[in-house]
Amino acid sequence: MHAPPAGSPDSSRPSPACPSLLVAVIAGWSLLGCGRGEPASFPTAAELSDERRRPDGVALDPASTPPPPTNQADVEDSVVTLRTPLGIGAALDVVDEFFRRVVAEDSEALSELLTRDALAIHTGSGGSGQPPSAGLWWEQRFRRLEYGKLAGEPVYRESELQIFRAEDVLATPQHPAIQPETLDDQDVVIRVPIATARVAADRLLGDEIVVWLRRDGPRFRIYRLLEDFQLQ
């Protein structure tokens, strides 16, 4: 190939950029700069208000008071609070503590195991007559007899106890004094055969004592004591 003559343009080399294109680019940049406006500004800490900001209010439903606890409920009841049933062990503990306080002749401590309306019912009377208050009845017995003589003696044997729930008592009534309409659904009735009713010539207890227990909050208390025993 021959080199082009000097002074003749070389067609293989790119031509310089068109001046009109450069003008258009510069104009576009200018338009973009004008469209951005003023820069965003934020208040400084010194410019913020000293008033404490309160959170937005939230609507709350007023708390409803739960219904009082009960031992049982019907399916028609919408909202109920049921008590947890007490175990038989709690009833047996009361029976054991009752005889301990009898042997100690501690009438004040014994009264703590009784309900306010506890009665001592003489089963030999067939349920007739007005039974005395259980607390006063045992105070009389402590004044007349020496229950300390039972210390060290087996008053009863736990293996011989007969335990009845309310539904069991209804099926096999223990005594006319135990009426179905007076039973609560969590009552417990314990028949206690007495192993040591006498010490020497002194008769201190009946041959058996039926202990009727009623729930009082988180514990059982003695509601009725049924025994064939009379002071001589």
Automatic annotation (TrEMBL):
<feature type="region of interest" description="Disordered">
    <location>
        <begin position="45"/>
        <end position="76"/>
    </location>
</feature>
<protein>
    <recommendedName>
        <fullName>Nuclear transport factor 2 family protein</fullName>
    </recommendedName>
</protein>
